TrEMBL record:
HTH marR-type domain residues: 21-159
Protein's recorded name: MarR family transcriptional regulator
GO biological process, one term: response to stress
UniProt feature coiled coil, ranges: none
Entries under SUPFAM superfamilies matching the protein: Winged helix' DNA-binding domain (SSF46785)
Keyword DNA damage: no
Pfam families xrefs: MarR_2 (PF12802)
Molecular functions per Gene Ontology: DNA binding; DNA-binding transcription factor activity
Alphabetically ordered keywords of this record: DNA-binding, Transcription, Transcription regulation
Signal peptide: none
Length: 167
């Protein structure tokens, strides 16, 4: 079986501290390294569309969950698990790029709705299709069965960490 950089780290721990079972470092270290590598590859794609990952995430959230009226900034913050201040800054950038609008809800004058502009919708429709292909490429080293197994294992881990129904 091929060895990775984490194997070297685990070997070093076995030598330095043979009394410890460092195997959890193998799992979490690999998960962390894989995430960093995938995020770098994803950022290349987002940059091609003039976006940061956080901007892509908001546009994608509006596209999949916003409906024709859009979403409140609070609902966007909840969906992205970010503070309202962080969301406000991202919305400001997307408004400046003409990807989203921010308008008072006619049904409730105290509510502001954020919605995709036609330009924003075209962008996210292109970008999300390319993003899925990019993710497919990132996972190409695993068979479809292995991808399903990994997804199931990660779901079990996240549920055990109480990540139920959070975005």
């Amino acid at each position: 079986m091929a060895r990775d950089a984490v194997d070297e780290i685990l070997d070093q721990w076995r030598t330095a501290r043979p009394d410890l079972d460092a195997s959890p470092m193998g799992v979490l270290g690999r998960l962390s390294r894989a995430t960093r590598i995938a995020e770098r590859q994803q950022q290349v794609l987002f940059s091609e569309h003039g976006l940061q990952q956080s901007e892509f995430d908001l546009l994608a959230t509006l596209r999949r969950a916003g409906g024709p009226r859009g979403m409140t900034a609070g609902a966007l913050a909840d969906a992205a698990m970010k503070t309202s201040g962080a969301i406000t800054n991202r919305i400001d950038r997307l408004v400046a790029k003409d990807f989203v609008t921010r308008d008072v809800d006619p049904a409730s004058r105290r509510t502001v709705l954020v919605a995709l502009t036609p330009k924003g919708r075209r962008l996210i429709d292109r970008a999300v299709a390319e993003h899925i292909e990019n993710e497919r490429d990132i996972l190409a080293g695993l068979s479809l069965r292995q991808q399903d197994q990994l997804a199931g294992l990660l779901r079990t881990l996240l549920v055990s960490l109480d990540d139920v129904g959070r975005g």
